[in-house]
Amino acid sequence: MTHAGRPHETPPRASGPARRLFPAAAGVAPELLRDAPRRLGLVGLIFAVGHVFYYLISLLQYHLHYVRYRPERVIAQYAGAVMGIAVFWISRRRSLAPEALVWVGVLFEVVGGMLLVYPENLVVLAHLPEARIGVSWLAVWITLFPLILPAGTAVTVTTGFFTACSSPAAMALLHLQGHPWPPPNVQMFTFLPNFVAAGLASYPAIVLSRLRRAVSEARGMGSYRLEERLGVGGMGEVWRASHRMLARPAAIKLIRTDSITQAKGEEAQTLLRRFEREANATASLTSPHTIALYDYGVTEDGTFYYVMELLHGLDLQRLVERFGPVSAGRCVALLAQACDSLEEAHARGLIHRDIKPANLYTCRMGGRWDVVKVLDFGLVVRDHQAAGEEARLTVPDEVGGTPAFMPPEVAVGGVVDGRADLYALGCVAYWLLTGTMVFEGRTTLEVIMRHLHEEPVPPSQRSELPVPQELEALVLACLAKDPAARPADAAALRRGLAAVPLAEAWTDDHAAHWWRQHVPELAADAPPALP
């Protein structure tokens, strides 16, 4: 779906659009993440064995009177062994999401670094016989860890810095225990290599991120290549794309992966099935007023996508926001086309559940303007008569739909059928005629409560344009609290719209003239240039 005047943006990293502000695994190749539990578990085991071995060597040196007994060192060795075993055990849990595993690794690097450097600093401050000034094991730990468990560049740099800070932190802790600070030159040679190592550790993360982005862009989304972002929605982003072989532009919807990354077990499977359900529901519909689906899939990094026809026009939300309420004739024409799409969907037992102006698109198709397309079947469910597995594919505690267009029966968790979509379509009609929502409020709960208990103000009292009584009665019937008081189905609503007496019907000529006058950049006689 293209919009005039949108700035060009570069394609997103395939690590997933609309990621959280501080994503641990952003920019990491999925192949590396899949193998990360094995590598992290192996390092945890080596870490534990190393501390046990170090404890035995220290014990032997103590009995041979080579070193003094230091309980702090023994405690650090015990803690290191326990932590290594814990990391090994956690990494073997198959239910742990990759994102969570990366954060386990971050904690392991920082705390493990402290356990490594604490005994070293104890040796320096206590002036023990084995004291040496040189590169710490901490520097080696910081440098190698990004290769063991790759993370996003920001996470790698930040973690390396905090791990390097564990050396002065350990020395400060020892100072509080009564040990004097070492001379400045000793401090410099003790601390500086660790911070240099933290800087060097960012290089592998940057290289891996660039390589991964290059491979991802080369692969694209199946046979499609992303070109320009068109918009951001509740479930992800929509991009203009081109087919590698066909001269046919398309729109690709990328589904946000942050919720999938955080989900695990049954919830993750539910979200995956929900994506597949939306794609299959859209593909099964053949109405010319339902957006056409070309393809869908899941990339190797877990990004869901589906490819649909590219539309040139405006959604009804932006249409009214930019140009104000529409005439009664145009409202009838737009709603009748939406009814055509819903009529087929309801006949197949599919309920959209998220009808709203932003999901109804008026566009140019061939030589016709104001052709309505129903978008985003992301919340589609089977009605109660066709209930099956699809009816259970919702995330726990989730209420589907948009509050400003939510039917009362959806808000209270009642039985839902096709008349729920007609209620939402009545809200859309109200928006088209008045430029305002049926009910507004300061909070989501307030809006929902008004839908449950208040009667709407007739649209003729809130519109500057004339609204025929028959059209107003039809809109208010759609907005009835009781589903039984609404039109029986989308076909009945479409017939009611056709029977509304209009001072001037909205024709193809009216539509073409309006678009050329108000949106000339989209109304050019030639179709948009292909890449």
From TrEMBL:
<keyword id="KW-0808">Transferase</keyword>
<dbReference type="InterPro" id="IPR008271">
    <property type="entry name" value="Ser/Thr_kinase_AS"/>
</dbReference>
<keyword id="KW-0723">Serine/threonine-protein kinase</keyword>
<keyword id="KW-0472">Membrane</keyword>
<feature type="transmembrane region" description="Helical">
    <location>
        <begin position="131"/>
        <end position="149"/>
    </location>
</feature>
<feature type="domain" description="Protein kinase">
    <location>
        <begin position="224"/>
        <end position="507"/>
    </location>
</feature>
<keyword id="KW-0418">Kinase</keyword>
<dbReference type="InterPro" id="IPR000719">
    <property type="entry name" value="Prot_kinase_dom"/>
</dbReference>
<protein>
    <submittedName>
        <fullName>Serine/threonine protein kinase</fullName>
    </submittedName>
</protein>
<feature type="transmembrane region" description="Helical">
    <location>
        <begin position="156"/>
        <end position="176"/>
    </location>
</feature>
<feature type="transmembrane region" description="Helical">
    <location>
        <begin position="40"/>
        <end position="62"/>
    </location>
</feature>
<dbReference type="InterPro" id="IPR017441">
    <property type="entry name" value="Protein_kinase_ATP_BS"/>
</dbReference>
<dbReference type="InterPro" id="IPR011009">
    <property type="entry name" value="Kinase-like_dom_sf"/>
</dbReference>
<feature type="binding site">
    <location>
        <position position="253"/>
    </location>
    <ligand>
        <name>ATP</name>
    </ligand>
</feature>
<keyword id="KW-0067">ATP-binding</keyword>
<feature type="transmembrane region" description="Helical">
    <location>
        <begin position="74"/>
        <end position="91"/>
    </location>
</feature>
<keyword id="KW-0547">Nucleotide-binding</keyword>
<keyword id="KW-1133">Transmembrane helix</keyword>
<dbReference type="GO" id="GO:0005524">
    <property type="term" value="F:ATP binding"/>
</dbReference>
<feature type="transmembrane region" description="Helical">
    <location>
        <begin position="100"/>
        <end position="119"/>
    </location>
</feature>
<feature type="transmembrane region" description="Helical">
    <location>
        <begin position="188"/>
        <end position="211"/>
    </location>
</feature>
<keyword id="KW-0812">Transmembrane</keyword>
<dbReference type="GO" id="GO:0004674">
    <property type="term" value="F:protein serine/threonine kinase activity"/>
</dbReference>
<dbReference type="Pfam" id="PF00069">
    <property type="entry name" value="Pkinase"/>
</dbReference>
